[in-house]
Amino acid sequence: MSATAKPKTEEDKIVRRKLSDQVLDRLRAMILNRELAPGDVMPSERALMERFGVGRPAVREALQSLHNSGLISINHGERSRVNEVSAATVLSQSDPIARLVLSAAPANLEHLKHARQMFELGMIRVAAQKATAADVAELWAIHAEQERQLGNATAFIEADMRFHIRLARMTENPIIVSVAEAMLGWLFEYHVGLLHWSGKEDVTLAEHARMIELIEAHDVEGAVAMMERHLERSAGVFEAKA
User: Fold this and answer.
1) What is the pTM (predicted TM-score) of this model?
2) What is the pLDDT of residue 194?
3) What's the maximum distance between 2 C-alpha atoms anywhere in the chain?
């Protein structure tokens, strides 16, 4: 080794990237710059092979990676299509990891409950400010459906989730809607409600009805306070699995 030569480090090494990774980068760029727009059919494997000068395995691996990340949909017997990229796309891809994190330690469920409380208090504040007559009518319709499901715990819980997601939609913010849907889906995994709902369904219905009344009156602080009481009271129906 010469006097001026330096020992090799990991940063010095030139790493040869897989062809499939390079194809993946090119395809992502085509989607991001809208050369391939949502709903478009992806070019055939042969066309991509010719365009990038690579073999079929590299193209197929890149396409599968795009499918796994939610950027395209691959259906057997049909050409792949580009998906609409949204917050829902991102959250759906992170869903398995989020569930793993939540199951890793019991404390994470409590963190999720706390996060949901902070999120929904802000959500109902906006809903109460912006509520229209149509919004209120839909909330009452969901309330009536939930009431009809008394005795059917699973359907009752599903209607409960629809009520909270409808509040999220009243914010007219698609990111808030996507986060609400994801958060409620994660919590549903911990729902022990088939027993816990017994005798408490009427309380839930009464709390939802009061929230709707306060939203209809645009009583922002009253609606926030009611949601806070509702979440604190119902927190016990979510428990870590043994």
Assistant:
1) 0.65
2) 43
3) 85
